[in-house]
Structures are given as structure tokens and as C-alpha cells.
Amino acid sequence: MAIPYLPKFIASDTSSMVGPLLAPSSAPLSPPIFTQDDFKKAAAYKAVEFVHSGMVLGLGTGSTARHAVDRIGDLLRQGKLKDIVGIPTSKKTYDQAVSLGIPLSDLDSHPVIDLAIDGADEVDPDLNLVKGRGGSLLREKMVECVCKKFIVIVDESKLVDFIGGSGLAMPVEVVPYCWKFTAVRLQNLFKDSGCVGKLRTVGENGEPYVTDNENYIVDLYFNKDIGDLNVASDRILRLAGVVEHGMFLDMATTVIVAGELGITIKDKQ
Ligand SMILES: O=C(CO)[C@H](O)[C@H](O)COP(=O)(O)O
């Protein structure tokens, strides 16, 4: 279902609108120009329409999910949502939610989640995802695999023909112990797909990126389709030293895509 009225979903905050949308009505008509962040926000706001008072909510991580968490905070403050409990998927989201006054809990106290809203790095035609380029894949997967509904929010640049199809990383969280050994073993699993594994680093000195769980991330790059994703998933998870990978297979129940043509809602068949 394509809804060709993107501005409708971001109309409550016109500060993010750019170009002719802010121009006076007497200005010459020209096509509105939206930024990628406008699309992220539009998808996020649409997803928050599915949030109801009393829900236990999985709160995603990343620049798209951030808009959804902000919106939930706004609605709580305005009294339009009540009795929400948020389960954050990262320390960053925890901090954001605390700053917005969103009541928080964890999976020990709330093992079943009504709805999770999160971004993704890739979405394939079957709604399989790559997540974790923001580094939070483990907690995201723990939260999102126990939710009744999982809404993924993306701008249209995240749509791919096959997982790995963006040419960007498929992250794997590994224990720091002998990570090089694990990276080589991961790479060897997908030799036929030209797989290259690189340790994710930060800063000028190339220090390893450390996840919220004190692990490292090996980013896998493929130069072609890796085939059966469930087989690939099993092979990765069988390697000692691997904690979790960023393929979220058969988990999304709905994907909301925002782009030049408006918002599209895709439901898992
Ligand atoms: O998986 C994630 C973090 O681990 C993010 O949801 C994913 O990287 C998308 O991020 P963004 O919305 O900033 O593009």
C-alpha cells in the first residue's frame, strides 16, 4: 500500500522539512525536497501509530529508531500514551529513553513484548534483515525475537535484492578472545561468495569497537549472494567464538519504508 502523502506523517514537526515545504504559498511550485532523515522520521512516526497505551515496547537503536523513541516520549508527555514500558536494545537507547522519561524495564521482568520498533541496514524482498551496523545486534535480536509484532522502519535506500546486496557489512558479534582466529573461520565459511571479514574499529589508532556486551564485531563483506540464509545462519552460529550475527531472518512482521513516493507498509505474508 503506497501512501503518497509523506508530509502528513512529519507535519507535526515542520522543523525537519526543507525547501519548498516551508516556502510561502505564493512561492512558485516546485517538487518538495526531502532528506534521508525526513524519510527515517516519516517511517518512525508511522510506526508509532501502532503503539497503544499499556504496551510493553522494544525500543530499537540507530538514527531511525531514535525518531520513534523521541515520538513515544512526546506522546507520553502529552498524555496521549499511558502505562508504556520500554525495553531498550542498547545503552544509547536506554540513555535516550531515560532522558525522555520513558519508564524502562528488561527482559527478565518482561519476557514478552507487545511491539518492537527498530531500524535495519538491509531489507530483502522476504523481509529478512541485516542489522547491527550500529553495533547493537545482540540485544536487538534478544528483544525482537520475543515480540508479538516487530515493525522495521527504513528509508528506501535500505531495500536490497538479497542479503549482503548493498555491498556493506553483515556484522557478527564475536568474543574478543582470539578474534582473528574467529574472523578467518568466518571468512572461510563463505569463500565461494568472496567473503572478507574485517574487525570493526574506532578512532585514529584503530582500536576495536567494543559492544555493550564487551564483545567485538567482525564485519563480513560478500561479493555475491550467500544462498540459503538459514544454512548460512546455522554455519555462523556453530562456530565457537561467535556470539550472534546480524541476519534477522523471518523476524520482521511489518516493514515501513519511506521514500520519494511516500510510505509503503509491507506485512509479512
Ligand atoms: O541495527 C542497528 C543498530 O545495531 C540499526 O537499527 C541499523 O544499523 C540501522 O541504523 P540507522 O537507522 O541509523 O540507519
Care to describe what's here?
Its EC number is 5.3.1.6. One of its GO terms (biological process) is pentose-phosphate shunt, non-oxidative branch. InterPro entries: NagB/RpiA_transferase-like, Ribose-5P_isomerase, Ribose5P_isomerase_typA_subgr, Ribose5P_isomerase_type_A. GO terms for molecular function: ribose-5-phosphate isomerase activity. This protein is of the alpha/beta class and 269 residues long. The chain has 2 domains: 2-160 and 250-267, 3-Layer(aba) Sandwich (Rossmann fold); 170-245, 2-Layer Sandwich (Alpha-Beta Plaits), CATH 3.30.70.260. The protein has helices spanning 6-10, 36-48, 63-77, 91-100, 137-144, 179-189, 229-237; strands at residues 2-3, 56-59, 85-88, 113-118, 122-123, 129-130, 147-155, 170-174, 196-199, 201-202, 207-208, 216-221, 242-245, 247-248, 254-259, 262-267. Strands 1-16-15-7-4-2-3 form a 7-stranded mixed beta sheet. Strands 9-12-8-13 form a 4-stranded antiparallel beta sheet, with helices on one face. A 3-stranded antiparallel beta sheet has the order 5-6-14, with no helix packed on it. Helix 3 runs parallel beside helix 4. Bound molecules: ribulose-5-phosphate (5RP). Ribulose-5-phosphate (5RP) binds next to helix 3 and helix 5.
